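Handout, section 3.2

Students often ask what a structure token actually looks like in practice. Rather than define it abstractly, here is a full record for Aminopeptidase N. The first block is the sequence as you would receive it.
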Amino acid sequence: MADTATPTVIRRADYAPPAFLIDTVALEFDLVPERTVVRNTMRVRRNPDAAHAAHFELMGEQLEFVSASIDGTPHSAVRTHEHGLSVDNVPDAFELTLVSLCNPTENTTLSGLYVSSDNFFTQCEAEGFRRITYFLDRPDVMATYTVTLRADKAAYPVLLSNGNLLDEGDLPDGRHFARWEDPFRKPSYLFALVAGKLVKLEERVRSGSGKEKLLQVWVEPHDLDKTRHAMDSLINSIRWDEQRFGLELDLDRFMIVAVGDFNMGAMENKGLNIFNTKYVLANPETATDTDFANIEAVVGHEYFHNWTGNRVTCRDWFQLSLKEGLTVFRDQEFSADMAGGATDEAARATKRIEDVRVLRQMQFAEDAGPMAHPVRPESYVEINNFYTMTVYEKGSEVVRMYQTLFGRDGFRRGMDLYFKRHDGQAVTCDDFRHALADANGRDLAQFERWYSQAGTPRVTVSTHYDAAQHRYRVTLSQGYGDAAPTARETQKGPLLIPFAIGLIGANGADLPLRLEGETGASGTTRVLEFTQTEQTFTFVDIAEKPLPSLLRNFSAPVIVEYDYSAEELAFLLAHDSDPFNRWEAGQRLATRELLSLAARAATGASLQLDDSVVNAFAQVLTDETLSPSFRELALMLPSETYLAEQMPESNPAAVHTARQFVRRRLAEALKNDWLAIYERHQTPGDYEATPDAGGHRALKNLALAYLAELADPADAVRLAGAQYDAANNMTDRAAALSALLTAATAGDGRRAQEALEDFYRRFEKEPLVIDKWFALQATQRGSAQRPVIDIVRALMSHPAFNLKNPNRARSLIFSFCAANPAQFHAEDGSGYAFWADQVIALDALNPQVAARLARSLELWRRFTPALREKMRGALEKVAAQVKSRDVREIVEKALG
């Protein structure tokens, strides 16, 4: 890796249009693993809207330059340098042909052209194309591509690229070729090629306009039986986008290819999506309910990019959320519609809860740390570091607020206008905002601040009821509290916050709502447009003092501060008609109790759980009118990571003690109920990957997990052992193994060890399942006699472990560092020393993966002094040794 001790900061304010434009690209590849020849012929012209440039500058990394010619004549005025290639003495319009070499076999970064399992793959977003050929590798340079692939036919019988297949045939010496054409202009980050020994599942479908489309899912031969769900998800995605947004598949064919070595989840290359195998391969024996749901969501996400990202793309990488935030919103809506349609609010709420849990645990933490940045960042050193929760998940919430403000129909009008104005263009977040505003006749100038301000807003709520006048006053105040310095620096004024509210009467029913000045009541949930630093809304005709239900369906990505009593939260948990807020009330109740217990645990004081909390959980557990999936979410305690972040000083050990105490107390107090739930929610018969069946399995397995917390876990061991042996699906088998590992901390661990050994023997030829095997061990509770760090270190030497494979590194190392806080934050600092060693090792192989791991310590300043000093030492060790700008940006910002 190149040493980048003094990396360049790229700033949004410095954007300038490219000096040259590339209209067409003809690529020819002679694919050889150690020495691939790339011939790149471009039609180039000066950009009339840009400043004149003396040289034509192209980006290039890890390439060997061979030759250049202009308009068919060799051109010697070419200089290679650290960042690429300079071509001097160029006319205003010309055809440039460049020949270069690259070595895919040695490309462990998995960016550009690389080899995995003896097959060729590419990953070009964000800046991987410059590792394939010299190019103007930026998203606002859009061209049409023709691609010719040549390779040994026996070794690489399948040759794929973007768009439509024009021609294919045999060549001398056992080689063959395929020629592809993508008729749509695209930036280079959407280029893709695949070559290798692959097989396909294919189907033909008709689009809404009656055109036949060929759909293909390509995998290695032994994985063909795991492709049906991905194909069904693709078909469902195509149908949904036609019905919801009127958007049809625009190519004659659409291809998905699965690869085991991949830095991300998937990539939306035009017509040739390349996926991590994790988000394609599934059958009941190898994939959990969560895997099935994730595959549907990710297939949907990448397909929806065909319009929101491909047909309309980003002007520059600062606008990344233009495509990612919008497309995450679209895949969330797709998943919600697949679960509950447009009208089943309870089923849709389950998806909403799952999404908000992720946002709060990960994005809110990002907002509070040194990597805090706006949805549209103002600067970066390494763009790969800004594929963040803020850009994706908070960006999605910003898009959702448009729909909350304008409704589904208004949002659709805005989308229609957006495509009408910008199809085939590279545009900005402001262009999207203007389309939504113009389509709905609104001024959204203030809404721009959601794109330019970092940090998580806090909305403080105060209320007053005037019994004589039957008036209820709600005063909202907005600010950022103790935001991270990065967040404070970006704040420019109050936001437009769509704040959904309901009022609940003493009988648990919603009250009809009429704001002062309105002629009549309208509905029981109102979206208040909160635009000032402080603003008061007065409801009239309120005959009794109500209980407010605040920020229904999480209508904005903010933290609500309102002093509910424990009794009020229990009332909301029992009665709120908004499913999200019903769940939210339970989480608030649990969080309040857990933080109080953690504070006591930190001082060594005795712990006691209030009976009201147990009773509230019991009421949800036994309420058969609630869906199993909702109950499972409502009965799941807030995570240790989230709880630690709510403390004045994060104390993982105290949080773990408190949370385990509550889990044990709920297990003991509700033992008979858990046993009854476990029996009642069995799913006999063949496995079905449906939301309903998945909900029953989730609640049943949550009951098993609680039973494993008992001081005497004999019942749990018996049930889990029988479930493991009889399981006909991975959801139940993995849950049983997890319960056995938990129970082993309180008793004999022989049954857990037997199951671990059996699990490996059964699935040693299934890489994705072995990833689960590693992850289960990395996230187990451990004990003083056998800390998990020792288990993880031992597994690093296991024959199945390979640090070069991102999935395997994530399954063991990331799982330990990010998903086992009590063990990772051990007082002796062993977790931090392990983290530092792995970041340094990964940095030499794959800086993108290393940078993701590096972020595990970015909030180090918020921990107790003893932990803080050990974290600082680990960060300084990493800073002194890593070379990539990916990791350096993370650790240097963390150290400040």
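Discussion prompt for tutorial groups: The two ends are 24 Å apart (CA to CA). How would you have guessed this from the sequence alone?
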